[in-house]
Structures are given as structure tokens and as C-alpha cells.
Design a protein that fits this description.
Blueprint (H helix, E strand, L loop, with lengths): L11 E4 L3 H13 L3 E4 L4 E3 L4 H8 L7 E4 L2 H13 L8 E4 L2 H9 L5 E2 L7 H5 L11 E7 L5 H8 L3 E11 L6 H8 L5 E3 L3 H16 L6 E4 L2 H4 L9 E4 L6 H11 L1
Parallel strand pairs: 1-2, 1-9, 4-5, 4-7, 5-6, 7-8, 9-10, 10-11
Antiparallel strand pairs: 3-8
Helix pairs in contact: 3-4
């Protein structure tokens, strides 16, 4: 195919996910003709309290439902759980978002509760299996210091809820100079972030020079919870698009409009 015929030909996109995930997405976008800039604004590290995590995992044998909030929760949470033994047969699994659901399927779970449309906690909580949870024991696999919405909502519906905090998110040390140089040359058109925390880290990492360029750049986010953040308003516009391969048609529309 002619390079100019590719849907994202010439579109420069900054990918701020943790490095392994960023490089995987970069390959997908490059195949569609984009020029990806991998600039991780979030890193995943082991939890600060592994003993507390193990104590929470001890409840898994009596758990009715395990909710995974991210693909990182699947990777690190399942590894920790399987070190303690096989997954209990009575514990169903649920995921916030399709990427997390697919990670669970790839890990051997055939029946995953997950919203089909929007990829956020609110959509998961709107599903029928998350409504009738009175008396149920639920574990939420997540990073340290995440949102409280799922736990608070399920407890208000009568469930007993505990966390398995199986990783922590940190701001990595990164050199913004190469990215700022590409930005100055007009090669950066969009920045993709998955969370408000990543957005905050990114803006802090690029410094004043980078901030001065946000008003001419599109921000790409997976849902309105990130789009509504005050920092998002510094960008020229905000595009809400599905994560992963779902970004390609949305970004193609952005290129066509440019």
C-alpha cells in the first residue's frame, strides 16, 4: 500500500503508557502510517506492602467475584494469586474495559464480565451482575491509591469488598528533550494518555517548553473522566477514543479533519 494511503500517514502521536504497553501500541499505530513517539509518563513497580497484598489474597478462597481494574492488575494480580494456588472455581471475574477483559481471556478465563461499550468503572457498575451483590464477597485487584468508586458503590449495594493492591504507579525519570525537539519541528500532532494520573505526570515531565505547545496539540483519552480534567483544557481539543486498535479509526478522522 502507498504510504500516503495509510489512515494515519504523517500523524505524530505521543504514547505515554508504561514502556512495554507503549511499544506495543506504537507498533499498531506505525502499521497504520503514524509516527509514534514513545514517552512513558507512568511506570509500574511492585507494591510497597506485599504482606498486605498476600493477606488480601488469603480471602480469594471465599470470594464470589474478582474485579480487575486494568491489564496491569491482571498481570501482577494473577501472578500473585497463582503463587498461592489454583484460581478458585466459584470466583467469577470482571474487568473495567475491553483491554483488561482480553488480558483475562488470554490468561485462561472464558467468562469475563465486562461492559461492551464505554471502558470505565461506571459502565461496569451498570451491568446486572454488579447490581445484585448483597452478601457477596468481592475482591478488587488494582494499583495502590486508585479510585474508590467501585468499592463504595458495591458496599452501598450490600457487598463485602476488599482490595488486592498488587502494583504501584510511579512517575518515571524521562528526558523530554528529543520529544520537545520533534514538537518544535511540527512532528507532534497528538498526545495519548489513559488516565488523569498519566496526564498530570506528562505535563510535569515536559516542563514549560512543552506546556507552551499543548494549545496546538490534540489530547486523546479513553473516556470522559480524563477529558473533563482541568489539565485537558490546555490542549487544542480532546478526542475520546477507544484504547488500542480502536484508536486508529478515531485518529484517522482527526487526520482527515486537519
Amino acid at each position: 500500500m502507498n504510504a500516503q494511503a495509510l489512515p494515519l500517514a504523517g500523524l505524530g502521536i505521543v504514547i505515554t503508557r508504561p514502556r512495554a504497553a507503549a511499544e506495543a501500541l506504537a507498533a499498531t499505530l506505525a502499521a497504520a502510517g503514524a509516527r509514534p513517539f514513545v514517552f512513558p509518563a507512568l511506570a509500574i513497580e511492585p507494591p510497597t506492602g506485599p504482606a498486605a497484598m498476600d493477606a488480601s489474597l488469603a480471602r480469594l478462597g471465599q470470594c464470589d467475584l474478582a474485579i480487575f481494574v486494568s491489564a496491569n492488575a491482571v498481570e501482577h494480580g494473577l501472578a500473585a494469586a497463582r503463587r498461592q494456588g489454583p484460581w478458585p472455581s466459584q470466583a467469577r471475574v470482571a474487568a473495567v474495559g475491553e483491554a483488561t477483559a482480553q488480558a483475562l481471556r488470554n490468561s485462561g478465563f472464558g467468562d469475563v464480565i465486562s461492559p461492551a461499550g464505554r471502558h470505565d468503572s461506571e459502565s461496569l457498575l451498570a451491568l446486572d451482575p454488579l447490581k445484585a451483590v448483597g452478601g457477596r464477597k468481592i475482591l478488587i485487584f488494582r494499583g495502590e491509591n486508585g479510585r474508590e468508586l467501585i468499592r463504595e458503590t458495591l458496599e452501598s449495594r450490600g457487598a463485602s469488598v476488599a482490595y488486592v493492591e498488587c502494583y504501584r504507579r510511579v512517575r518515571p525519570a524521562g528526558d523530554p528533550a528529543p520529544l520537545l525537539g520533534a514538537w518544535a519541528r511540527g512532528q507532534v500532532h497528538a498526545v495519548s494518555v489513559l488516565s488523569a494520573e498519566t496526564l498530570e505526570n506528562f505535563v510535569a515531565m515536559i516542563g514549560a517548553e512543552g506546556e507552551s505547545r499543548l494549545g496546538r496539540t490534540v489530547l486523546v483519552v479513553p473516556h470522559e473522566a480524563v477529558a473533563s480534567r482541568p489539565l485537558a483544557r490546555r490542549f487544542a481539543r480532546v478526542l475520546v477514543a477507544p484504547p488500542g486498535e480502536g484508536m486508529v479509526p478515531a485518529l484517522a478522522g482527526l487526520r482527515a479533519a486537519s
